Amino acid sequence: MFVAKSIAAQHKDLIHDVAYDFYGRRIATCSTDQSVQVWDLGEDGEWHCTSAWKHHSGSVWRVTWAHPEFGQVLASCSFDRTAVIWEEIVGESNPNEKGQSHWIKRGALVDSRTSVTDVKFSPRHLGLQLATCSADGVVRFYEASDVTNLATWSSQEEIQTKLNCSCLSWNPSRVHPPMIAVGSDDSSPSSGGKVQIYEYKENERKKKWHKTETLMSITEAVHDLAFAPNLGRSYHVIAVATKDVRILTLKPLRRDATTMGSIGLDIKQPAQLDHNNQQVWRVSWNVTGTILASSSDDGHVRLWKANYLDNWKCFQELKGDGTAIPMSMPNFNREQQQQQQQAAGNARLNPAIQDSMFDGRSGRYHAWNL
Amino acid sequence: MAAYEREIPLLVIPDADAATNCLSSVWGLGHKLLLHAGIGKRIYEHTQGKGYEAPILQSPPRLHWVQWQTDMHKPIARKLVTQSHDVFVALQKHGPESSDSVRKPQLVKYSRHYRAFMGECVQDLRKAAADPNVSREECESYTAQSELLQTMGLIWSLCEILFVETLPGGVVLQQLQDWLKLHFTEGDRLAREVLQSEDFQFNEVYWKAIYIYVMQGRLAEARHLLSTHAQQEQDTLNTFARMDKLMRDMPVFSALSRQSLAEFDLRWRHWQDQCAQCLEDSAFISYHHLHTICRILSGDQSVFSELSDMLGSWYQMLVTKLLYSNPTVRALDLQYHAKACIDEFGGSSRMSALDNILMAAFEFDVHQVIKASSATMSNWWFVAHLADLLHHCGKLDSHQLNFGSNLREFLLLEYASTLMSHDSLWQVVAGYLDHCPQFGRHYLELFIERIPLQSERKAMKVLRVCEEREMTEQVRSICKVLGMRSLQQGRLGSALSWCIRSKDAAFATVLSDRFLSEYSLGGGFSNLDLIDNLGAAMLLSDRLTFLGKYREFHKLYERGEFQEAAGLLLSLLTAKLAPKSFWLILLTDVLPLLELEELIFRSQQTYELLHCLNELTQWYSSKDYLRSDAAKRKTKGQQELETEKLELLKLGLARNLARAVQEEVIIS
């Protein structure tokens, strides 16, 4: 494992969120400095900031990409109580700007009366939908009435969770009814379970979001949660960041094989991943949902993986060292840095095996303990 | 064996703010992470009313990209990746159902192919490392990688002998000798050194080469070296000739010969008795080195310990010892003999990872071989391919635990995942995922949609791969993405053709509207050949049908088939296929038809047209229309033109009605 690249963002303050686009060739970043930036991976293999704009009037907490089927669309949410939808327009009117792109505001969702803490687009099979959650405990659903004209977003539904919401995640499965999980960072254990599961299903001849379950096993503050890709399993996997990381499986219980929606969930907890008793703030799955990255208060990022017998283990840790990079070198020689990293990596990563044939001399990441 | 529980490796990221604000990570495609300082704690403090702390960032925040398991992405290793992929795919055709006698030689062949490609890669890496233009680090990384591959080769060949190319009766020594010969070439190196040196001397190097040859059982080579000695010095007492004879006479068992094992055993014992006799007679006592060789030949156990430095490892000692004391040893008994050799080399506490893997192989513990190999090697190439080969040999499933096929799939999935982060290995990835029955398809579905499609050509390739696997959902999505992208770049024709492929009706309507508005603004259609050849695809949406039909009207008109053209136009109006905003254009198209000498619209048709005209006039004054953007955008001039056209139409239609009624009366 090695640092392939390291560059300075043009933000003036802490970055709160970074989101890759669907192909991993663009990223969007947002920061306390109230701005959003978009970076593109160029043909030269370098990342270039191609757009930066400031519109929000508060810290921007989260940024997220819509599926490319809907074009180049971003959503951001902020302390200023709004969530905003952005679309990239390729300039064509002005010949000087031909091929140049810029981002324009397509919609502002201003229903919240408190800080909007998370925003997520739905899986693409549900069309262009969006869910937001806010500190006052309301989860809101919006939908673009016309996919080719993103100016109009209709509010679909509001759910009162009765707990201050910190995060939400859509279940990506296309063979199950729409499902979201909402987490709350309310820190008092007496207010009950901090993760609520909602399903969109018909009840009394009306399709609505219904609460299916509250995960009573998690009573501490929840800071982040994420569904893993379904991979054709009969159950869903969700990772929850709280005072540790819980991996939970949710298996829909059915009355019989033919009924679509479930009548409840069978919840199991195959793993509880300890983080030195530190709060965990972020969890993120890789594309196939086989490796989980978690970020905790001790400054560590940990990578977790289950082996083929479903035993979860941490196989790599990453940590910032607090060393400043000389300001005179804003784009700091890549090769040199790589060398330093590799040298540093070698010292630390060198496996405790004497046999020289297995020496991870080039700082290569070692394989997995089965 | 819980031998490799080791500390979790730590990678330090040079970031000034990470110490106070912690680190967050986001996943890229494959084994790639993007890290930055800040973990969303600020949101919590904010919303919990803990107040806002002014930022104290020492420098602008940084973004760090971390990657791992990229050693298969380098050009040299990539050759191995594609070559082994071909072998892998060919191997999959040999399912466990075909009979053993047909299958086994095939499997051995594939195993050799894998090894050959590893060997080729080692050569390439060595060559690359020797290139004076490469940097020191690159050179080191090439060397490390070639050493790793050599180790893999060593383990692989042993596994091939024990698990793949199992001989009847389980007599393995001949194969083990070949194994040593292939992987431990110091004897050859020393011999070359001696023979090529200008002042040829019978020094320590010379004798060491001979010892190694003898201990590896390569007596022909040893005799060749010895003969040079005999040529130079008078062998008055025939000592050298005697040794030569002993060596020449050593019986060699070959599984292919007709000789029975008992027969061989008898001959071999007789031969070793002769060796022992020579030793007893002190025949070589005057030549210290020949005496030692004779001790080896007669299987004197103490000599092996004396020469353990030259043997190098317990497994080399194992083969030598067995060669001169128990040449008919069966594969299953190897592990008992191995224990004694391990003790000679310091016991099991001094075993390296490689020693453990080889020992596990001698113990026929396939699972442990794979487990220990994946724990120590820096890539999944080796374990994934080995596990797959052993699975095909039926060795993985026969293990007591019943997860044989799961383990194989797990390793193949891991290997494929390491290739995902590379731009051009996606077809290789698909090849492996195809053969993972449980999760392969799901992985591929997630992965294939995310392949960046920079060019149309690549898009077609990816789509073909999807179509071959009937991934209709992925095909649809990829086409939709490409359609949307074309639309945003203003390429309407390309957008429409992608849209037709993705069968997205709503998008087809949007695109048709774009074409129509282009027409109404500029008076022409772009992408004519596409619209002319829509065929059945036209039925995707009503608007697209209208577009296709309207274009058909133009063609009929151009060809002078006015009757047909008029009929089509009328049907477009009456069937309400045309959007209201387009009616005026359609009705304007009617005007020239009214001015022709020949009567085109009969009275009934004219009534219908008048009805449409009336409906349009009503629509223009309706609230719906007046409130719409189109109405608001209209200039005064446009409005006047519109009214004029409507008037003209009214007049033209009235005149036509008169003509039609007149003609119809005459006919009747």
TrEMBL record, chain A:
This is Nucleoporin SEH1. GO terms for biological process: cell division; cellular response to amino acid starvation; positive regulation of TORC1 signaling; protein transport. GO terms for molecular function: structural molecule activity. WD repeats lie at residues 8-41, 273-305. Its main location: other. InterPro entries: Sec13/Seh1_fam (IPR037363), WD40/YVTN_repeat-like_dom_sf (IPR015943), WD40_PAC1 (IPR020472), WD40_repeat_CS (IPR019775), WD40_repeat_dom_sf (IPR036322), WD40_rpt (IPR001680). Keywords: Cell cycle, Cell division, Lysosome, Mitosis, Nucleus, Protein transport, Repeat, Transport, WD repeat. It is found in: Lysosome; Nucleus envelope. One of its GO terms (cellular component) is nuclear pore outer ring. The keyword Repeat applies. The keyword Cell cycle applies. Belongs to the WD repeat SEC13 family. It comes from Patiria miniata (Bat star). It comes from the Eukaryota.
UniProtKB/TrEMBL annotation, chain B:
GO terms for biological process: mRNA export from nucleus; positive regulation of DNA-templated transcription; protein import into nucleus. One of its GO terms (cellular component) is nuclear pore outer ring. It comes from the Eukaryota. It is found in: Nucleus, Nuclear pore complex. GO terms for molecular function: structural constituent of nuclear pore. The keyword Glycoprotein does not apply. Keywords: Membrane, mRNA transport, Nuclear pore complex, Nucleus, Protein transport, Translocation, Transport. It holds the Pfam family Nucleopor_Nup85. InterPro entries: Nucleoporin_Nup85. The keyword Glycoprotein does not apply. Coiled coil: none annotated. Functions as a component of the nuclear pore complex (NPC). Belongs to the nucleoporin Nup85 family. Component of the nuclear pore complex (NPC). This is Nuclear pore complex protein Nup85. It comes from Patiria miniata (Bat star).
